[in-house]
Amino acid sequence: MTKKELGTPYIREKVAYFRERKAGNKMLITNDAGGYALLNSAAYKKFLAGSLAANSAEHKSLQKQGFIRDALDFQALIKKYGQKNYFLKQGPSLHIIVVTLRCNHKCLYCHASAGPENNEGLDMAIDTAKMTVDTIFRTTAQNITIEFQGGEPLLNWGVIKFIIEYSKEKEKIDNKNLQISLVSNFSLMDDKKLNFLVKNKVSLCTSLDGPEEIHNKNRFYSAGNSHKNVITWLKKSDDLYKKKYDICRPGALTTITKYSLPHSKAIIDQYVSLGLPKIYLRPLNPFGVAKKTWEQIGYSIDDFIKFYKKSLNYIISLNLKGKPIQEALAVTFLTKILTDRDPNHMDYRSPCGAGIGQIAYNYNGDVYTCDEGRMFGRIGDDIFKMGNVKENSYQELMNSEVVKSMCIASCLEAIPGCSDCAHKPYCGVCPVYNYSEQGSIFGQMSTNGRCKINMAVFDYLFEKMQNKKIEEIFQKWVGAN
Amino acid sequence: MDYKINDKNKEIIYSVNTNLYSLEVIRGAAFVFTDRAHIFLQNDGKKYIKACIKLKENSEIGQNIDKKLKSLAGEFNNEMLNQALRKELGEQNKNIREYIVSQALFGASPESVNQKPQKDSDEELDKLLEKELKALEEEEKKSKTKDPHKILVPWEKKNKSKSKKIRK
């Protein structure tokens, strides 16, 4: 029976499952496999009524994306769903090692809750480092990324060198694929260290909050000029990597504080002038020191959304003029929307990466579901602690209650507001954020600030991509054409 | 829609017919409004649910509170329509969605969806085993003694003489 039944607002035989949301003047529809379509009002009505002509471009496109129920290509949908969720079959691949909690900077938003520079008791010892690497290589994941974090990791250079050399050996013995990265403020970088890092193909990442005035205000360094160090070593390391490999080129992250809000153009221009291909406009997280300094540097969710849209507009305008700078969050979301791939961003997947995709190892061997979870441990709340590398086996760590809880709390299929959201195939929740802001790892999405930001970014991307020229730029960003 | 506005409490109250909208749909709509208002639901006879939408204290009301409350009630009604559509779509397509997800996650791995089915590789394995068995048989035929350790001789034959002796 193909006729519309009383009380049924669509033709059952023609319409496959979809979620919907207004996107400007159009209706956005998405499905489980991540297919999407932007339909004008007339086409949306025809789609629901099952009256789109079978040979029309709209019908063909909807059919290809899996929205026409009586013409589903099951093999294609199964393949796409599998590719989009491939991470579910992997083990933890991202392993964050905090080799020291000491830091020589006093950043206003310090998410890492770093400790004083002279307290060497906050350094990871060699035996702890060895046990940490041994634990890491127990992972079921074939591809392993070890990321050095701090504090300022270069303050414990000896342990960094040991971990790099030891893990390279383990890579060969255990037949895994290893990548190593280092997140540093570069203040302690020198030629010897850089050559060692380049030789071992360690990719580098730093914090660059924009022009000198903004950067140094956010990232206070009493022993020198933080901005100058970053620029010097970013250029130097980029040149060296370009010469040697032209891969794993250094990158930078921006944290947006209240001081950054009026300067979106200047911040982006700083990145463009350095030839950096990407800028990540990260909102301030209410974790660690940022919770205490919120009055000074914080802002409303709406303020950030305004800033983000303004910045993205500027980035798009630069691209239209031939300057190929990208915004990292947009690239993550667009990869999920426009391609059959998933970038496996730990914060934007279902379930989130906590424990099952990433693990954070503190200087003393304590193991947390993620670096954000470790930050809570730093302020005396070990709710996200999985165990300790000296006391627990890999199996015990992975079977800990916290891993299971985080998994359940971040499964979008079971979260009110997420399960029916049109952005569900592309989004993810952060139980640590929920715990911090709403008092429970199970967040309430209708009042959740992170959800509001994600919604706004998705809405804006879907609105912008309705312009053909902008869509072409987005396609280039994700390598879809 | 029959409703009652209480300006003083910044709330609008109306009854929803449960023959038109299930409790699941009404709750779903109420959840969507939790950022804008406090929602109170209670039974109103057997066929009705009384919904009270009360503005939050920090709500921007503007000059006309009646207009604001009526608008909110209208949006609530639209959201119930949306929730009803969602529920129906979910129920109608449940089996198809479960089939796709189960095939993708528990069936073939994403890389092997387009590969030949398992049957082919089983057949190849059988052929290989047959080939190896034949090679073994040939080798056996070539050997001078077909059964050097008398493995093929039945146990009774091997022990015939011994067993007779025991019986004696």
Automatic annotation (TrEMBL), chain A:
UniProt entry keywords in alphabetical sequence: Iron, Iron-sulfur, Metal-binding, S-adenosyl-L-methionine
Required cofactor names: [4Fe-4S] cluster
KW S-adenosyl-L-methionine (keyword) present: yes
GO function terms (MF aspect): iron-sulfur cluster binding; metal ion binding; oxidoreductase activity
Residues annotated as domain Radical SAM core: 97-230
Gene3D superfamilies xrefs: Aldolase class I
UniProt KW DNA damage keyword: no
Annotated InterPro entries: 4Fe4S-binding_SPASM_dom, Aldolase_TIM, rSAM, rSAM_paired_HxsB, rSAM_sf, Sulphatase_maturase_rSAM
Every 4Fe4S-binding SPASM domain range: 352-421
Family: Belongs to the radical SAM superfamily. Anaerobic sulfatase-maturating enzyme family.
Record protein name field: His-Xaa-Ser system radical SAM maturase HxsB
UniProtKB/TrEMBL annotation, chain B:
Biased composition (Basic residues): 159-168
Domain of life of the native organism: Bacteria
InterPro entries associated with the record: HxsD
Region (Disordered): 137-168
Basic and acidic residues biased stretches: 137-158
NCBIfam families referenced in this protein's UniProt entry, alphabetically: chp_LLNDYxLRE
Record's protein name: His-Xaa-Ser system protein HxsD
Organism: Candidatus Schekmanbacteria bacterium GWA2_38_11
